[in-house]
Write a structure and sequence with these properties.
The chain is 12% helix and 53% strand. It is mainly beta.
């Protein structure tokens, strides 16, 4: 028969306590993780074409057009992030309150196509799909995707991030895409007339098959301007440290 010494029994008991404490903290972390997410969900019923503003600090913002007359907004966020909304007539504002922890809030929003959209985001990717109302996007660090957009006014300003546009241009419309540090990738229908003013400090401008069809074109040390199909709307592309890529579809 083998007897355990007092030291051995003490060591075994100490390890058992340590193991139990480890299990306790693991379960505590799981519980905290499960409780660390909060939900924001609202449905708005504007009487006319609405103006929706989303002001976020950190997180993804996706806005998609649907065939309903209501605006439905959902967000998942860290528990310490405060999301507030305000409605004045058909102007709707949803904003996250800034705090020192910069908690993440991800938005998924469905809107009628004609809704005018203003997005202000500090950090986090942004995507708008199927919007026909005015579009304004500003961010410090975001990749921005505008897909199937058919608006008469689009204004995008990003400090750091790529901007992707695949949509329509309306006659008389105004379109400005700018990135301080990132690429501008623009795809347009071949039958869309426009007046182009493209400026890239890196001098990396690729107009693809549009180049041979531009009239009255002029090329400067940092930019390119010209008219496509007798012109129409204004298309201004500015990339301070990145490429400008123009594609025809």
């Amino acid at each position: 028969m083998v007897y355990k010494s007092g030291h051995t029994r003490h060591t075994t008991r100490k390890r058992s306590i340590q193991f139990c404490l480890l299990l306790f903290f693991c379960f505590a972390l799981i519980t905290v993780s499960a409780d660390s997410q909060s939900r924001f969900e609202r449905t708005y019923t504007p009487r006319r074409a609405a103006h929706l503003t989303i002001s976020n600090v950190n997180g993804r913002v996706n806005v998609v057009a649907w065939d309903k007359r209501t605006i439905h907004a959902r967000a998942s966020s860290a528990s310490y992030v405060t999301i507030q909304d305000r409605v004045i007539g058909d102007d709707i504002t949803i904003s996250t309150k800034r705090n020192l922890r910069l908690g993440r809030a991800d938005f998924e929003v469905s809107v009628p196509p004609e809704t005018s959209i203003t997005i202000k985001n500090i950090v986090g990717n942004i995507e708008l799909r199927g919007i026909t109302g005015h579009v304004s996007v500003s961010s410090i660090d975001s990749d921005v995707r505008l897909v199937k957009v058919n608006s008469s006014a689009v204004d995008v300003l990003v400090t750091s991030g790529d901007v992707f546009f695949d949509g329509e241009l309306r006659d008389g419309g105004s379109y400005s895409l700018q990135s301080m540090k990132g690429d501008l990738d623009v795809t347009l229908p071949s039958a869309t007339p426009f007046n182009l003013n493209a400026r890239a400090l890196s001098e990396n401008i690729n107009l693809g098959s549009f180049l041979s069809s531009l009239t009255g074109s002029s090329r400067g040390p940092k930019g390119f301007s010209g008219t496509y199909l007798k012109g129409g709307c204004r298309l201004t592309l500015t990339a301070y440290a990145g490429r400008i890529l123009l594609h025809k579809k």
